[in-house]
Amino acid sequence: MNAEHQRAAIPQELIDKIIDEVHDHRKSLKACALVSWAWLPRSRVHLHRTITLYHQNCRIHPSQTASISTLLSLSAISEYTEELLLEAKTDYGLHQPNRQNDIDNGELFWRALARFAHVKTLGMTRLFWVSHSLENKNRLCAAFSSVTNLDVYMSDFADAREFLSLLTAFPLLTRLRVERVFWAKSAAAWYEASGSDPSSYRALPPDRVPGAALRHLQVQHCDVLMMADIAEWLVLLPNPRIETLHLSPPDGDDFEALPLYFSAIGTNLKHLTLALEFSINANRLRQAVAGLEANTRLQSLTLLANYGFGRKFVKAASVFWQCVLAILTEIATDHLHTIRFECQPEDLEDPAALEADGLLARSTFRSLSSVVLVFTSVEEYTHERLGDMANAALPQTAARGTLNVLYV
Fold this sequence. Notes:
- By secondary structure, this protein is of the alpha/beta class.
- The two termini are 43 Å apart.
- α3 (26-33) packs antiparallel against α4 (40-47), α12 runs parallel beside α13 (316-328) and α13 packs parallel to α14 (352-360).
- The strands form 2 sheets. Strands 1-2-3-4-6-8-9-10-11-12-13-14 form a 12-stranded parallel beta sheet.
- The protein contains 16 helices and 14 strands.
- Among the domains are: 1-47; 215-408, Leucine-rich repeat, LRR (right-handed beta-alpha superhelix).
- Helices cover 35% and strands 17% of the residues.
């Protein structure tokens, strides 16, 4: 069957649907791309949706020199890219540069970046912002004016204001995820301790407001200083518009900055996610949650049993449900329609789960239409057994038909 006949025989919508079914299987997508011209565009949508550039201080990593050079010779490829990931490598010096073709990996990096100026989603991993020259910082900040979604992971800055200076580069930013970032209490202290060049510091532009359009904020595993500094930045926003907040504090932090976040966001907050570490004190958590304004129109609440290694030392269930009760007794519930508990099966063993079930049956939760239990480690359990455990732990919720069980 030739390609022309195939195009006539199979509707394009069906071809696209077939390709969509293997969107996460690169080998199959590459095979689809070779079927015919009709199969190529949709295959490229998935193959090139996300591109990762490995670099060190704005030089393409030698392991990627050939592939990035090829990418630059194929102008159509970058048109399909929606997400760009910039990931720093620390082993640059272990790779020998390509002397034969005399390729400048710094120039190659900036040429590649120019191809992706249109992306909406940008990820920055191990950015090591303090090690960049001021010129490179300014060039990076000018490269992605279209970004609306930003992830910053395991990156360091001289101080909080330099972190905010990065955010000013994204005036359209609506979603920000920050995980394991670091900065010092002051830039002067950082430069004195590190011996770095203070002339590389990028000051916060006086005419820019970082995060003015922000709607969704996720802060994970940043230490107490970072958590507080981010909250204080939100307080200074003239018209905060944040509707979704996800907080996962460092081990040992009882959400001390939570009232600051609530105060800054105000009544705009609609969706709240809190990751509960095993060391959190339920009473202090209750005091923190009490900072949520009574007229907040909270619509969904997600609580994560994020105990990790702590499960080896404490009975996680006895911590999780006490924290759940502390939160449920303090939040505004008039508009709350969904509560989601992400936990492990053994977390249902605590009798406090029954107490939480009774609380959810009260008239204050009358707007609640869905209680979701998400199990994250289910290898040793059948779905039928997990369903029985969920019904036993939350019997009144199950009887009302609002209990849903998901397995991850």
